[in-house]
Design goal:
By secondary structure, this protein is mainly alpha-helical. It is built from 12 helices and no strands. Helix content is 79%, strand content 0%. InterPro entries: Phage_phiKZ_Orf197.
Length: 232
């Protein structure tokens, strides 16, 4: 496991801390002809050797470096196919982590993967999934008649409310699992402070009631999920 952790650390440092934005822009414009692409791969190779501190691992580091090059190259050429630039980024990171996992546990990859899956807390996984998109969809259906009566006089980021709700429910669920109920109160207070100016400026009672109902419902779903997990 320590090998996998060190490889992840090398990846995080090389991909995020030691890769300036101008390198990324240059790679996107020049693709395979970009010198920064090869410099980026070389940094990854050196970082892995430094963190592992054992030259006998040079073959593993070389395999990871080559795979990193191929994955980055695939991302550079495939990115224009996606309207949402987040998708190729996430696929790229998933592919890198998958390679690191396979290399770290290459000796007993199948056995380790089976053991990892068997040890998963499926009740927790279910609770986490429930408080994300399922809860958002259920709330959307329950509040559908109310939302039709709300007239907004300002523009908002696309789906911002949905993502805010998902994040806050995840926080509430984590706080309940950690038995830190007081933190939920702080979260509600913080959200109220941020919402205060919007509600004050709009002077819209329907909007205020809608936001209050949505907030209470969102926190309620997360609490139900947390209580169900801790008791079951």
């Amino acid at each position: 496991m320590i090998l996998f952790i060190k490889l992840i650390l090398a990846h995080l440092i090389g991909d995020f801390m030691l890769q300036p934005l101008r390198w990324v822009i240059h790679k996107e414009s020049r693709k395979i002809a970009s010198g920064f692409l090869y410099l980026h791969i070389g940094i990854h190779f050196v970082l892995m050797l430094l963190l592992l501190w054992d030259l006998s691992f040079w073959k593993l580091a070389a395999i990871i470096a080559v795979s990193h090059y191929l994955i980055d190259l695939a991302k550079l050429y495939a990115s224009p196919w996606f309207r949402n630039r987040t998708i190729p980024f996430l696929l790229d990171q998933f592919a890198h982590i998958a390679v690191l996992y396979c290399v770290a546990f290459y000796g007993n990859l199948w056995e380790h993967t089976q053991q990892w899956i068997q040890q998963l807390d499926w009740a927790l996984v279910t609770a986490l999934v429930f408080v994300t998109y399922p809860s958002a969809i259920i709330m959307g259906k329950l509040l559908e008649n109310m939302s039709d009566q709300i007239v907004l006089d300002h523009k908002s980021l696309p789906n911002a409310g949905k993502y805010i709700g998902i994040i806050e429910r995840l926080f509430v669920l984590i706080f309940i699992i950690m038995d830190r109920w007081e933190a939920i109160g702080l979260l509600i207070a913080a959200k109220s402070v941020f919402r205060f100016n919007d509600l004050k400026d709009s002077n819209n009672r329907k909007l205020t009631e809608y936001i209050l109902i949505g907030t209470l419902m969102s926190f309620g779903f997360a609490m139900l999920a947390g209580l169900a997990y801790t008791h079951l």
